[in-house]
Amino acid sequence: MAKTPIQDGFETSVKLTHPDRIYWPDDKVSKQDLLDYYALAWQRMKPFVANRPLALLRCPDGIDGPRFFQKHAWKGINPHIEEIADPEDKEAARLLKIEDFDGLAALVQSAALEIHPWGTTIDHWEEPDMIIMDLDPGEDVAWSKVVTAAKEIRERFSRQGLTSFVKTSGGKGLHVVASLKPQANWPQVKDAAEAIAHAMSADSPETYLSVASKAKREGHIFIDYLRNGRGNTAVAPYSTRARKGAAVSMPVSWEELDGRIGPASFTVGNAASRLNRSSADPWADFSKAASPLNL
Ligand code: ATP
Ligand code: MN
Ligand code: MN
């Protein structure tokens, strides 16, 4: 990949070992390329990644090698990746968090090619600040239907007084995320997500599915509300995916969401021009838009 000069990017004291190591072979994306991408994304990404419990998909030899989904520290972990106790279970193995760009650089150094936060910050651990609806289209579902589903979820959130935002998953679908004032607890938030999923499948059973059945998924969109339980995670806005293409989970505006933006349209290779345009931060008002869940 051609090297992108960092403009307004962040710098870090974390030293990459083997910066030329290739993480995505087909796309020729190296460890240094990944750090350069995150330097551009960090300012926008930070609210969704810093000071939250994190799970990491680590691929030390890149996406074609072994992969480990890790929620806990490992031997030799970089000190910028910090350990935190789960307040509900102080005896359990401690979880992981980062605070700043050095922490993100440490994740790059650790070959964390996907970053999966909880939908909560450590300051309000028991009160999530988002509801995540993960749209999982089965085989043979037209992309326009996934876009329609996202807009329908937005409308349903809106009727409850909630503002929602949308991002590509970097995989096969879209994620619609409502911004919450951290007040309702985990079971209440999960119930709200489940209610929307069930209402959609009840209203349009030919299109939507609200049970996690791989067998029934063909031709349907599974409205995956299961990201919203305590300890569940979803890929972070701006996180890369450990899949061919080096796609990222990219926030988009509702206005630009149409048939032309696919789930893996944005990649480490093409994101720089978008991130360099200061006007294009569709999730800038996420925390300003937070409303309490009506119970
Ligand atoms: P797609 O658009 O392809 O569905 P996605 O990010 O929505 O992409 P997956 O990558 O399949 O979906 O992951 C589903 C969820 O399960 C993710 O949100 C992730 O946080 C979680 N997850 C992924 N791998 C593991 C794992 N090994 N163990 C536990 N949870 C995982
Ligand atoms: Mn999904
Ligand atoms: Mn899913």
From TrEMBL:
Q: Which domain of life is it from?
A: Bacteria
NCBIfam families linked to this entry:
ligD_pol
InterPro entries listed in its UniProt record? LigD_pol_dom, NHEJ_LigD, PaeLigD_Pol-like
**Species in which this protein is naturally found:** Rhizobium lusitanum
Q: Which GO terms describe its molecular function?
A: ligase activity
Q: Name one Pfam family in it.
A: LigD_Prim-Pol
Keywords noted in UniProt: Ligase
From the Swiss-Prot or TrEMBL record, give the protein name.
DNA ligase
What sections of the sequence does the record tag as coiled-coil? none
- Indicate the segments forming the DNA ligase D polymerase domain, all copies: 31-283
